[in-house]
Each structure stands twice: as structure tokens, then as C-alpha cells.
Amino acid sequence: MSYKPDEKDWMAYLYDELDNDEREKVEQYLLNHAEARKEFESFQHLRSMMGAVKDKEVIAPPIVLGDAMQRILWNAPYMKMIISIAASLLLLMVVGNLTDARVSLSGNEWKISFGEPRIIEAGPANQSMASLTPEQVQEMINSSLHQNNAVIQANWDDTQRKLDASIKSNLALNAGAVNQLVREASTASQDQIRQYVSGMQSENLQLVKDYFQLTSTDQKKYIENLLVDFAKYLQQQRNDDLQLVTMKLNSIEKNTDLFKQETEQILSSIITTVNNPSTNDNTRGTKY
Amino acid sequence: MAETLLDIAMMHADTLISRAMQGDQHAQGKLVQLWYKRIYNYAFKFFLDHDLAMEASQKTFISMCKNVGGLQDAARFKSWLYTIAVNYCREEARKKKVSRSLSFEVVWNHEAEESPKWESSSQRYDNPERQLQQAELSDMLHEALLELNAEQREVVIMKEYEGLKFREIAEVLNISENTVKSRMYYGLDGLRKILERKNINKETINYEL
Asked: Is A53–B58 a contact, with Cβ atoms under 8 angstroms apart?
């Protein structure tokens, strides 16, 4: 019993698409193998569940094709391209014909022309050029080089000379100016110095004078103030002293008055006591 | 299946297809009528989005009408049509991924809001509770389907819901039949795992055949 159905056989059996021989084999296998049977039943069960999904009802919408068949030739993209290329070629040809355009290729020449092409004649220069030998050419080159050199040399010399001249004239001009300046300076100095010195002297004089004047007035003022202050101070001092003296005199006066009164009293009391000894005790008692 | 009438019509479709191939516009219109629901449902299960599905189906049928004249063999019409549909679905999915815009349908599910599912469903289930469970299961399966990768999703929808043979799917996708079966196996296996993870089975959904 080596037969074992594979997944393809299972599917064919499940949907009943095996021929008789193979179906018998699978059925035999199912009888002998409980696990396979269980597996198969689970597939059958799945199929029965899947039967629950029903078709949806739907109404076919009208399918509009239009005149697609008639337009196929014109709609084809390559056809459009070909037609457009042909049209542009035709346009080019018409324009070319109208403007009488000609294109010619001969030798190394490619010409585009409108109308009859002009034939350009080969110039006589070409012929004469052709007859020249290399030596002549060399000679011509040499001579022209010589000429060129001579012209350059002449130019060079000329500019050199001009430059020298201008430098010289400049130098001369400068020297003259400097000399004049120096001379002017030397002649002018004597007078100027004298003037300057005298100016300085007078200025100094004025300055010192001013200074002395200023200081003397200041000092005068200061000393005046000082004297006034001192006088004031002395006056004050004298006043104070006078006051003090008068105060002292007053106090002495008062004292002497008091003393005088006291002595008078004492005297009077002595007198009374001496005069009236019986009432002496009484008066004493009332007086003191 | 509800579309027995449609099936009968498709039985006679060979003459219809050959007439359409000769450029009969009436026959082409008839083909659109016959196949629109299938292609739309394929696209809807692929996107789980009405607008994208409509977009892809319309493009598919426009392309069909334009190119049906070039079809070699009338017998291959079905796989040829699905090939076009698969390609347009892939294109729309790519566009959607690029634009990354949030569809209005996702934000406001007006279908859930204003049209209860039982109004349009068949009379097979007369019990409202069961109908609700049915609708819930359907939603969950849809979401699980959307979690598969696109290759597996294509094969699973074509096989399980469109009923194509493995040979036909191989023709549609231009791959070998074995590859189709392999994708189908891993697709179903993936679905089973997704449903297990969401803890959905007969008991939890209380669903009976």
C-alpha cells in the first residue's frame, strides 16, 4: 500500500474530477487512513460553509461601443504619426517649390540657395599665389619681418627720445623751482626773525605787565579785606570786654547795695535791742 | 442554483457566440446579458467592492465586444472571457493599491443600512434568524476570502463559485493544471486556517445544511 494521494489528487477528488481508477484508489486510501479522512471531511465542511455566499443580483448596464469600428484607422496612434509626418513633408515641398529653393552638393561644397545659384569664379589671386615658389615666399616673409622690425625699432627710438626729453625738462623745471624757493627763504629770514623777536619781546612785556597789575590789585584787595576784618574783630573784642566790665561793675554795685542793706538791718536791730531790751526777744522772734 | 434559465440559455450559446464573432451586435448584447452576472460576481468576490467590480466587469465586456471577432474557437469563449475579466481585475487592484484611496463604500455601507439582505434572498430560508446568520457567515467568508493572496483567491473563486473545471482555470490563467490544483489546495487550507483563527465553524455560527 504505497499509494499516497498528494494535494492535487485531493483537490481533484474533492471536486469530483478524477477518473474512475484514481477515484477508487483515493477512496481506498481514505478507508484505511482515519486522519486523511478527517482532513478530507474538514475540506468538505469548508466547502459546505462556503456555499453560504450567494451570488449578488446585478443588472447589466448598456455597453456603449459607439462608432469605434469606423474610427479604428484614424485612432491608431501610428497612423496619426504617419499622416502628420506626410503632411509636414508635403508642406516643406510646397514651400520649397514656391521659394525655388535649391540644395546642391558638389565636392566639398554644400549649397542652399533660393533661385538660380550664382557661380563664384575662382579669383586671379589664386592663380598668382599658385605661381609663387617657396623661396619667394620665404623672401617675402623675411622682407616683411625686416620692415616690421625697422618700424618697431624706429618707434622704440622715438619714444625713448621723447621720454628722455620729457624727463630732462621735468628735472630742469623742478631744479629751478627749488632754487627759487631756497633763495626766497634766505632773503626773507633776517627781517622776519627781527620782527618775530621784537614781537615776542613786546608780547612778553605786555604779559608780565598784565600779570603784575593783576597780582598787585589782587594783593591790595586781599590786604584791605584783611585789615577790615581785623578792625572788625578788634571792635568786637572791645565791645565784649566793655560789656564784661559793666556786668562786673553792676554785680559789684549790687553786692555793695546788699551788703549795705544788711549792715543797715544789723545796725538797726542792734540799735533796737540796745534801746528796748524787754521787747528784744519779741522783735527777734518775729524778725527771724 | 437559481439560474437554471440562464444555464439553458447558455446551452444554446454556441450559435450566439458564433453570431457575435461575425459582428452581430444583437448577439453581442445578448452575450453581455447572459454573462454579466457571472463576471460581476467573480469581480465582486475578488474585490468585495461593488464599484470596483462594476468597473472591471464593464471593461471586460467592452473588450469582449471589441475583440470577440478575433476569437478562434467558440468553445473557448468561456475561458477567454474569464481571462479578460481576471486581467481587468488585476489591473483595477493594482490601480487601487497605487491610489490607496479609501472607497466611500467602505466608510458608509449603504447596502447594510437600507436594504436588508432577506429582501433579495431566495425563499429557501423562511426563518429570519437563520437568514441573519446566513448573512453573517457570508460576510465572514467574504472577508476571509479577501485575506488570501490574489493568485489563490482567483483560483478559489473560479473553482468554488464559478464552477470552472481545473482544466479551464489552467487555460484562463495560462498555467499548468497541477499548479491550479496546488493553488486551490493552499487556498482552501488558508481559508480553513483563517476561519479557525476567527473561531468560525458549524457550532459557533449554528449553521445547518
From this structure: no
Using the structure block, give the residue that is written with the C-alpha cell 623745471: A173
Residues spanned by the domain of A38? 7-42
Minimal C-alpha gap between A18 and chain B (Å): 11
Residue whose entry in the numeric block shows the C-alpha cell 597789575: A213
pTM listed for this prediction? 0.50
Q: What are the pLDDT digits (tens) for B72-118? A: 888 888 889 999 999 999 998 888 776 655 544 444 544 555 544 44
Q: Which of A46, A48, A59 sits opposite B191 (nearest CB)?
A: A46
Q: Is ipTM beyond 0.90?
A: no
B116-209 CATH choice from 3.50.50.60, 1.10.10.10, 1.10.3720.10, 2.80.10.50 = 1.10.10.10
Distances (CA, A) of A167 to A157, A171, A172, A176, A180: 15, 6, 9, 14, 20
Give pLDDT, residue A51: 84
Rounded Cα–Cα distance for residues B95 and A58 (Å): 24
pLDDT at A279: 54
CATH numeric code, B1-108: 1.10.1740.10
